[in-house]
Amino acid sequence: MxxxxxxxxxxxxxxxxxxxxxxRNSDKLLTINIWKRFYSHxxxxxxxxxxxxxxxxxxxxxxxxxxxxxxxxxxxxPTNWKIAKRxxxxxxxxxxxxxYYVENRGQWKFTxxxx
Length: 115
Description:
mainly alpha; 0% strand
C-alpha cells in the first residue's frame, strides 16, 4: 500500500470511527461502513460485483490501520470494555479517553471539617 492510499484510507477510517461509535468495536462493521460511505459508486443495485472487489479496501488493511489509530495513537477508543481489554487498553486509560473520571490510586484524600 503506497503512502497516498494509506493516508486516504486512514482519513476514511477516522471519519467513520468518529461518527459511528459502534464501528469502534468491530473491524467487519467498520469495513462495511467504509465501503458503503466511500465506495458505494462501485455497487450495482446495492450489490458488489465481483470485478470491483479488488478496488475496495481489504478488511485486513482496515483492521491494521484501525489498530494503529486506536491502540497506538489512543484515538477513538472502543466503547465496549471487553474489546478494549482484548486490544491491550488499560482500564483507567480507556475510561479517561471516554471522558470518565478516574481517581488516581495511592493518592491521599484530604477532608476538611469546620470547628
